[in-house]
User: Fold this.
Amino acid sequence: MARFDVRIHGDSMWPTFCDGDQVEAESDSTANVGDVVVAKHPWKNMHIVKRVKRIQNGEFFLEGDNPDPTGTEDSHNFGLIPASSIIGTIRV
Assistant:
């Protein structure tokens, strides 16, 4: 299992993580509902950190923890993402 560091940018995962926090992610791990994951953004050339809210037909619905609906860009905006887009899991 490979581990890698991730720096949090923005407030989408507040209050769990704050802008500038550095966390450790594990690749080669299986994501389940409730886990925080690092994933490839489906539209932009960047990675995102979000919580798995549901899994259906092998695809993941991701949401930020920020209760402000304008505070996060997540599956409400871009829909479900395939399992192949999940690159790691962050143990909270």
Summary: The longest helix spans residues 75-78.
